[in-house]
Specification:
Blueprint: H1 2-11, H2 14-21, H3 27-84, E1 110-115, E2 118-120, E3 125-136, E4 142-151, E5 154-163
Length: 166
């Protein structure tokens, strides 16, 4: 029995009893956990920020492509109207720059404005987009049409070739 008491006593020392009752985290463990959580949170927030920025740039690229395509369609419409009226297909558009508003030749880059989700040339909310349409008729049998859209430091150019359909 004495041997048995000795075994019981050795299982309940003051130190082991205190650890069992008051077990918890040390200051170093808490700081390590906070550091891991902070690194994870900063990583997630930077990823979200990057995705928002990329989404905005992608949206501007899509808008620029559509504005450039519209520029090509403007020249195509002038060409088709000329053919329909019995004029030369390149009347008022050869070797120049096309103005969206009048169909005439201009030398500047048109700034684009936004009115009711439509891009226009006269007035409205200013946008970062500018469009310039260049025509080259040096080939003789066709027009080389370049629609150039600028925004910020970026430039998007779309090229098409228009022929006389007569």
């Amino acid at each position: 029995m004495l041997k048995m008491l000795h075994k019981q006593k050795s299982g309940f020392t003051r130190l082991s009893f205190a650890r069992q009752k008051f077990g918890g985290f040390t200051l170093i463990e808490v700081l390590a956990a906070i550091l891991v959580l902070t690194i994870g949170l900063v990583s997630v927030l930077s990823l979200v920020s990057y995705n928002i920025k990329q989404g905005s740039q992608t949206m501007n690229q899509i808008i620029a492509f559509n504005l450039a395509q519209e520029g090509i369609e403007i020249v195509r419409n002038i060409r088709d109207t000329n053919i329909k009226q019995g004029n030369d297909y390149d009347l008022n558009i050869a070797n120049g720059n096309v103005d969206y508003d009048s169909g005439g030749v201009v030398d500047d880059i048109d700034e684009l404005y936004l009115i009711s989700d439509k891009y226009v040339h006269d007035a409205g909310a200013p946008t970062p987009f500018k469009r310039h349409i260049e025509i080259d008729s040096s080939a003789g049998d066709h027009l080389k049409v370049e629609s150039i859209v600028e925004w910020g430091t970026k430039i998007f150019t779309l090229t098409d070739f228009l022929y006389d359909l007569k």
